[in-house]
Amino acid sequence: MLRAISNRLVILIPYVWLLFFFLLPFLIVLRIALSDLEYGAPPYTPQFSYTDSWAVIWDKLSQFDFENFTFLFSDSLYINSYLSSLQIAFVSMILTLLIGFPLAYGMARAPLGLRPTLLMLVILPFWTSFLIRVYAWIGILKQEGLLNQLLLWLGVIDTPLEILSTNKAVYIGIVYSYLPFMVLPIYSTLEKMDESLVEAARDLGCTQIAAFWKITARLAVPGILAGCLLVFIPAVGEFVIPDLLGGSGTLMIGKTLWIEFFNNSDWTVASAIATVLLVVLVVPIVWFQNAQARATETGK
Amino acid sequence: MIRSKLLFTTVAAFAALTVAAGAQDRVVNIYNWSDYIDDSILTDFTAETGIKVVYDVFDSNEVLETKLLAGSTGYDIVVPTGTFLANQIKAGVFQKLDKSKLPNLANMDPEISARLAKYDPGNEYAINYMWGTTGIGINVDMVKERLGDDAKLNTWDLVFNPEIAAKLADCGIFELDAPTEMIPAALNYMGMDPDLKDQESIDKAKELLLKIRPYVRKYHSSEYINALANGDICVAVGWSGDVLQARDRAAEADAGVNVEYIIPKEGALMWFDNMAIPSDAKNVDEALEFLNYIMKPEVIAKASNYVYYANGNAASKPFLNEDVIGDQAIYPNEETISRLYTVSPDNAKEKRILNRAWTEVKSGQ
């Protein structure tokens, strides 16, 4: 009896967590998104009071114009920002995977004694503030930065490359910052993999490449999906990297949101953008979740 | 925008918390622009009054305004620019100054106070800290090399005439990432009233800015100081004191970079940064004491001598260094002042038009 209760309590914890740190903040944002803009402190007039009964809320909703949401569709800027964010996040995810997989593979196949050290090296950058690491890239990528000086000195290029303040710098920043989130889940699936399966495939006539594709890559799918999810979702809403490394032409939803919130002081539209962003992200999250569940099923 | 200030903000938030825990200590929390004071003023103030100063910095009015509108900033003194101040007063985020506790108000320059009254009627909520202009910083040698020795440099043509800007593009043009500065400048260049805010006029300014966009290397509000000083760029639309700081850094580095600040002949924006006390400030007496201290002629003169901006304190003039009071770029003469213009605050709709146009200028979207 006691055990049953404690089991339920354990299950309850994540739900309580979600309630307080996801659902409630989301409802607050939604409430602002449904408010009217007004110059004051705070700069909006709420249409819903926290003391409204459900019936009142429902009644108000049914005759609501959702003007902050419809506004987002009246100007192509917002849709283009979402699309451009999704594209940048997707390309960054693929690049991270292309670099992260060989890294994770190498780590998982390294001698047992070496693995903790390699793992440590992947985690080590987290000891320095994320912001400082992104700043460091400014020093590396700028016109007279380390990279350009090195390439000029080596004679690879004649004129400095323009990388900082372009989308290239944003890709570099995202790939660099999120690489550990790709490497770690892939490493953990590859490390647990039974290597005798590959040997068996080789014994049964598979070439090395075929064995890799048929066994290793297949078994790594749950890790790859987890890694992709961990990179893609936060990259879509990324603000710091495009702001510091990107140029004026870099269009990302995080920056558009900043403009609404800070430059226009329009919290209502900013909240509507944030709400739509969440909806936009629910689709890939659910897809990833399903794909992962399927992969885990077949993996068993 | 956020820049390094994210870090400082966090640090300051923690500092404010620890201070609050300490209770009885008298303290004043100040939120000012970055690189905008001589630090010794703060230590002198603490030594004289026993009031500890928690000092924190920002680099955009927008960040300050968003914090003020959210409320409970924890700051006792903030420093908004005039146009923003006016809206913030209307939003009710400031408290009226208790002038009986500010005897040094007598030192203020009546002319500057009168101009400030455009934003703060009756000067009830704020005192002027510094004022300046938005003009052009140039690397004299690099610009002359491209335009010829006898080219006219005292004109907005450098950044608004596509033919001339094209010649300067390779050595680097920076513009302020601030629509409230750039759009009035563009309107003024076209001979229109810089204070126009209707869609049609803003669109005209946008067209002009889009024409020169291909020649602009970056839109940024603080990086140009170092970029000018290092000789990385040759032209920047910038704030007077910032360009002069770049000039001094270049002179110190002694690498042959010769920076000059220009108030173009077509006119330039004149702005005022002012100190005010948020209505939810906890240490009002300490804040008033600081305001009174900063209005001492020798104190504010020290600040001006350090940051190369003019102050609104008439009594401070005898204490100013010759390279400050004697510099036309900092204290322009009557003739130049007559060419300076001011702009009025934007309402929500005007803000949206302005920022939307600016987003298009910057991103092409």
Layout of strands and helices, then pairs:
The complex is a heterodimer of chains A (300) and B (365).
Chain A: H1 2-33, E1 36-37, E2 44-45, H2 54-62, H3 67-74, H4 76-108, H5 115-123, H6 130-141, H7 146-154, H8 167-192, H9 196-203, H10 208-219, H11 221-236, H12 240-245, H13 253-263, H14 267-299
Antiparallel strand pairs in A: 1-2
Helix pairs in contact in A: 1-14, 3-14, 4-8, 4-11, 8-11, 9-10, 11-14, 13-14
Chain B: H1 5-22, E1 27-33, H2 39-49, E2 52-58, H3 61-70, E3 77-78, H4 82-91, H5 110-116, E4 126-139, H6 140-147, H7 157-160, H8 162-168, E5 173-175, H9 179-189, H10 199-212, E6 218-219, H11 224-230, E7 235-239, H12 240-253, E8 259-262, E9 268-276, H13 284-294, H14 297-307, E10 310-311, H15 322-325, H16 334-339, E11 340-341, H17 348-363
Parallel strand pairs in B: 1-2, 1-3, 5-6, 5-7, 9-11
Antiparallel strand pairs in B: 4-7, 4-8, 4-9, 4-10
Helix pairs in contact in B: 9-10, 10-17, 11-12
Account of the 3D structure:
The complex is a heterodimer of chains A (300) and B (365). Chain A is an all-alpha fold and 300 residues long. Chain A has one domain: MetI-like (MetI-like fold, Orthogonal Bundle), CATH 1.10.3720. Helices cover 75% and strands 1% of the residues of chain A. Chain A has 14 helices and two strands. Chain A has helices at 2-33, 54-62, 67-74, 76-108, 115-123, 130-141, 146-154, 167-192, 196-203, 208-219, 221-236, 240-245, 253-263, 267-299, and strands at 36-37, 44-45. In chain A, α4 crosses α8, α11 (221-236) runs antiparallel to α14 (267-299) and α13 (253-263) runs antiparallel to α14 (267-299). Chain A is globular. Chain A starts with a helix and ends with a helix. The mean pLDDT of chain A is 90. Chain B has 365 residues and is of the alpha/beta class. Chain B has two domains: 5-131 and 272-331, 3-Layer(aba) Sandwich (D-Maltodextrin-Binding Protein, domain 2), CATH 3.40.190.10; 133-269 and 343-363, D-Maltodextrin-Binding Protein, domain 2 (3-Layer(aba) Sandwich), CATH 3.40.190.10. Helices cover 46% and strands 16% of the residues of chain B. Chain B is built from 17 helices and eleven strands. In chain B, the strands form two sheets. In chain B, strands 4, 5, 6, 7, 8, 9, 10 and 11 form an eight-stranded mixed sheet that branches. Chain B has a three-stranded parallel sheet with strand order 2-1-3, sandwiched between helices. In chain B, α2 links the parallel β1 and β2 (52-58). In chain B, α10 runs parallel beside α17 (348-363) and α11 (224-230) packs parallel to α12 (240-253). The radius of gyration of chain B is 20 Å and the shape is globular. At the A-B interface, α4, α12 and α13 of A face α3, α4, β6 and α17 of B.
